[in-house]
Amino acid sequence: TGALTFSGTLTHTRVGGSTLTNNNSAGLTLGNINLSSSSVNREVTFAGSGDTAVTGVIADGGTATASSIVLNATGTTLTLSGANTYGGDTTITAGTLLAANDTALGADTTGTTVADGATLAFSNNVNSAEAITISGNGVLSGGALRNVSGNNTNTGNVVLGATSRIQIDSDSSLTLSNIDTTFGTRNLVVS
Q: Which long-range contacts (CB under 8 A, 24 or more apart) does 113-116 make?
């Protein structure tokens, strides 16, 4: 029932996608993760009812070049604080993904998508160039994109996939270079 820590390297060897489920209410901390052990790009989904922190590097692994991660864990937080290098996309369908490193979201080549009811949060003075698509109000209407702490910057496009909310918590700042309305006219609430 206490917090769990795994400081070694996890390597995904299963064909196809896998789900890492954490139901420990005290939390789980992981070290490095290799998303693949071959040239095959793989997807790992983080799920469950417990908060998870990955403090090491999430890498494609093997000779793969575009493995991806998904957060689908309502009411939980996945904290990524390593200098991640995976080349695929990041999808947040439920829960909060807290990016606490400049490259927490992997390579800047494919982007991050935040579904309605989910949140991408920044902390720790992140300077990112990630392309981000947001939709909706986020977890508990706290912002689909949220600045939790620090002075964070994202120079990549932020695309409004639907009417969306961005929240900037007190004593913090968030600098965005470009809000893109490619999908048409959208309302944006900033609080």
A: 113/89, 113/161, 114/138, 114/144, 114/145, 115/91, 116/144, 116/162
Give the pLDDT of residue 90. Answer: 96
Question: Strand 127-128 and strand 132-136: pairing?
Answer: unpaired
pLDDT digits (tens, 9 = 90+) for 149-159: 999 999 999 99
pTM: 0.95
Least Cα distance to 164 among 185, 184, 186, 181 occurs for 186
- Closest among 107, 108, 55 to 78, alpha carbons compared: 55
CB 55 within 8 A of CB 78: no
- For tokens 């954490």, name the residue: 22
CA distance 19 to 100: 23
Amino acid sitting at position 148: V
